[in-house]
């Protein structure tokens, strides 16, 4: 128990240090000191006082984002849409989850609201903002990666990283369990957790899991049962959700 609490404390300090480093990088950039509009954006990022689309959630336009120096990496795609790495405020890498047209604004707001509720967790991305005004709708979060070149899911690591020692895998799985517990402690059920929805990040030389994709998440106690016809319809609308999750099986 004591070791788990120390691990939580260490990761909390590491995440705080990461955010501090990001902000210092922005503040020390010459562009912030020479362009009033960029300074305005920085204040928006710090104090969250303008362009609200929901309580505590900012509206981010596509003009605020540019391709990274390394290029606009497409990190993953599926039935929901695609995730792309872009840059904001000159040097802050972000992940932009663009959804397909069949996913409406209400669903995007729901995912953002679930993610916002979990911002105290050490195991979820930082929510920066959303766009639900014009399509394609998208959610913007912090970018997480084990390497500068690409994003690495737990599934990919299990398939490719065969040289990782057993002790390190046990540490990663232990952190995944702590991450899931942090969601439940904050009153959220993920409802679609699997290896492809866990990213592996690097924090101060340590591998750290980050849980993503909260489109099917709900508050604890808000789960519901479905009739057989509803299950079939739900599966057609959301083909990426695991069948046992749709059925409500154990």
TrEMBL record:
Which sequence ranges form a coiled-coil region, renumbered to this chain?
none
Q: Which domain of life is it from?
A: Eukaryota
Molecular function GO terms recorded: ATP binding; protein kinase activity
Keyword Chloroplast tagged: no
Q: Domain Protein kinase, which positions?
A: 69-250
The answer to whether the entry has keyword Transferase is yes
Provide the protein name. Answer: Protein kinase domain-containing protein
